[in-house]
Specification:
Length: 386
Amino acid sequence: MESLGKDDIKLQTLISKASEDGRKYTPKGIRISIDLVDAALKQLRFLNQVNSHPSLSENDTVILNAIRRYEAFWLPLVAKHPSADLVAPLDVEWIWHVHLLCPQEYERDCMALVNAFVDHKLHSARTRSDGLKKAKKIWQSLYQNEPFEVDLSPSQTIKLDYDSKIKYDLRSAVQRQKLFYYQVSLPHYDSKCFLNNGLQRYKKLLYLKKCNPKLFFVPCYDMDLIWHSHQLHPRIYKTDTEAILGKTFNHDDSVNDRNVGSKLFNSDAMTRSLWKAAFGEDFAVTGTMYRGNPATGIRELNHQNRVMLPTKVCKVFIDRISLQQPISQGRYNLTCKIAGSSFKILKLKGSQQTWETKPTNRVACGGLARFTVNTEIGRASCRERV
């Protein structure tokens, strides 16, 4: 029997502890002070709006200008009107969004810049419209030379030189977060039932973190969406997570190397093992896992791939074969080429130019020949009849 290594022994110890911890878990023990299902739906609407303006994540001038406007104008404005329920213009709101997703850095930057922990909340379409109107009025009274809303077209080519005082690298955070919406843009993320299940799983994630404060856990995207929605209400998030964990639960989205042996890879494997031990269920849930990166372009498909796309498996029945030109030999093979694969269908014999199955026998015998084609693998299996 092979002896266990130090890492294996450590994992087995953690699994044993998780099994014990899981027996003590109750959802009511993890208290959340906001409706995170409703918040997740609002976040999805906002991310969809951002996604419709690619320049917010792809045009460096637009991104840098949004950071400038967020830092120099928006944070000071909203810090002076903490109870006004104001909503930022889209470019500024997007930078605010990615900043909030690093809670500890966000709080430190706010205190350094405006000497206040600036709060935020997600809005419905109606309250967003009202908040924008109020914010625009205040903005225009304070900043006559800075427009409230700016052109977000990707054609902007103006070079902008701006040295931000914010310590958190917002430009890099934008590049990471622009991929998040693709992961959660599937139709089932609009289901309250699905999101409520994600909320219950998020509570379990918080419980695992409570029981193992030094470990790095990796969530699936259903809980990650709920987690983001919680962070986007920074005062509530700080209060809730400090009550559960004893300190603000930080979110580090810079850990994204998925290669074997990486921190993310190893932590994911550990999360799965401890989750199973603690809760007696699989960590992975259909529709919540990493989808890869979105496609960046359209490739021209070759003929074989075009055939493979519309049909995977089909059954072919041949009832009638007719030759337009007479053939002198009395015996020959009929072959077919499908998806680049050539195969024999059946043997024909006789001097006639037409072979067909009698109508009364077609259903019973399957015709002159029948075969199955699997275009995915470019093969066919043939069962011939003559």
